[in-house]
């Protein structure tokens, strides 16, 4: 049996101010109530606003405890703002309280000051390492940026991350983010500078979500719609063969001829763009035989196939 190792903190000394800000935050929440009774401001607008302000800042200060103890990267500016604001409010409380509450707020102010000093000393611990920065820059350098905001074939609006148009299956122009060289369909790296072309993480996550939705048990028509959306998503991600299979599955689930022919036309366009014109032509003929009124526009696509390739060279 594997034993989990205890969590190691980057700077164990920061555990002291981490505990201190919890005490200081609690004092911010409790002390205003004592001050209100002392100066008989209970129920006044000033008293209520004071309670709200100190409670919010107190909760904020307590929440900094975890970030300080764990030296969370990128949190340093926010921690400093919260601690300085808390210190100011503790200073104000020294003028509004007396006795034990005064002494406790003096201790809380000292703890805030200690936390601020230690955060200034160990500021670099809250910054990303050189290796993390280099990894991030490398990821940014491997992205691909599109040069179009609409499909060059059908004119449909497309997103910057899409590889293929979901309306007509046309390959969308791409350029290398590093040198600006055009990336041709099927290339996995820039032919000029060698930059690797990768699908964006958001696109991968979108396809994974659509895949899960499609595979979830549901009514036939619902699953048909889910597979159709998966087909569109796979086209956007540049995976036309899988998109065709998704449309084929969507056809199998639906009982409505017009939905079936619509998916068949989409399949035909993708197949034509892949150079499989004969298969596309058969699909279009079948679509027109199922729905003679041709709501899906199979005849129009068939004529465009005769005139030339669907996807421009």
Architecture blueprint of SSEs:
Layout: H1 15-38, H2 45-69, H3 76-96, H4 99-121, H5 130-141, E1 144-146, E2 174-176, E3 182-183, H6 201-215, H7 220-236, H8 240-253, H9 257-273, H10 277-290, H11 298-307
Antiparallel strand pairs: 1-2, 2-3
Helix pairs in contact: 1-2, 1-3, 1-4, 2-3, 3-4, 6-7, 7-8, 8-9, 9-10, 10-11
Give structural notes:
With 313 residues, the protein is mainly alpha-helical. The protein has three domains: 12-126, no CATH class; 129-198, no CATH class; 201-307, Tetratricopeptide repeat domain (Serine Threonine Protein Phosphatase 5, Tetratricopeptide repeat). It has eleven helices and three strands, in the order H-H-H-H-H-E-E-E-H-H-H-H-H-H. The protein has helices at 15-38, 45-69, 76-96, 99-121, 130-141, 201-215, 220-236, 240-253, 257-273, 277-290, 298-307, and strands at residues 144-146, 174-176, 182-183. Strands 1-2-3 form a three-stranded antiparallel beta sheet, with no helix packed on it. Helix 7 packs antiparallel against helix 8 (240-253). The relative contact order is 0.07. Residues 1-8, 140-147 and 309-313 have low confidence and may be disordered.
